[in-house]
Amino acid sequence: MYYLIETQEQLERFFEGEGNECYLQFVTNNDEIHPKLQSVCALYLYSFSREKGFMINIDHPEGFELELPLKYLQSYTNIFVKEKTKALLYIPTLPYTDIQSIYYLLKNEPLPALPKTGTHTFYERKFGANNVNKIIPLAKHYEAMTNEFEAIYPYISNFKEEESNKWYNEILTPTLARMVSEGFKINDTFNKHFDINEKFSIRDSKIYGWYNFCTTTGRPTNNFNSVNFSALKHDTGERDGFEADNDMLIEMDFEGYHPRIIARLSGDELDKSESVHTQMAKMYFDTEEIDAEMYKRSKELTFQQMYGGINKKYLKHTYFNKAQQFIDELWSEFNTKGYVKTVIARRRLLKDNYKNMTPQKLFNYYIQAFETEYNFTVLSRLFKILEGKKSKIILYVYDSILIDFAIEDGKDTLQAIKATISSDFPVKIKRGVTYSSLEDI
Asked: pTM here?
């Protein structure tokens, strides 16, 4: 097979005079198993200088075994990969450019899945839970990978880096890779609530999730192997099955996050020392004395104003007046330019990518985009704080961050985490040993 590299001599000969860029795809033992728990059996590498794809065997039984050719791959200055988040779990030190985000920023949807060969379909059905990719012939992997590369190539050849690409490539995808590699410890209660194939996402009493950022709003979902980590229920006992691997779980939850984001975007200001819903209740009911029923009703009314449109009777209040002005200006820019740019990543919300868009829907997408971009910028800073420490970030759910905290890391570490998360928006803090037992501090 003239495209197969399986000896050290072939490897050295290939990289003599090789160019600075390539496309790389990892062939793992089983595509259904979480990338953190995977082993790589081969590499598909398309050489732009040779204008040809090659298969480097690692330990597929059809060829001689090689070690991962790390030192050779490090000679590239840029490596295009389909999904950088996955690639970082296999080899974390290479200069990857993420094609998934390039496509998403253009189309606002994930890369379409390409049909594999008939051979892939047959073997996956017959040997699905095993190391099926080591049974499928290398020639068929090469065929499938070549077809995939040809479909992706137009987005590589026409790629021009913008601010948004840089944020997705340097902030979002590396942060996601760190998030999905940590794992969330589970206990015996887990199996009472979830019936899954443990081989696909559990090892050493830890379960691994996967964040998909290619959503309509840009908000990542976290769903893998039939477990929706973004929506673990409070009242069914599901959360009983998740516990601290270190000493305790600490959750930092942004207080009144979306109303505060709206204030920031529209040029208004809310009191950080008082609950958002108390402040809103004072506007709704024109009184300084707020009881429990008013507080509850305030939450409902705020939800209606944010997601259903602002009632005109509340426009007398500066907060809602500025919010409505912002909605109107955003809608005007969207229709005039054909897009609006998000605040932090500078992602273009392109008019052509959205059907039946309305001013309120655009406003909601914009708020959620800010939330996501702000959160992941903060998370990237938190990982720097936690470098060399035992504590780890194990879950992110929109307006909250869950930390598996080790007491040995000290009070200063916890204070640094809190200061970073709450630098712009106030947070509520809870702690507990299991995810279901978190209580306010």
From this structure: 0.94
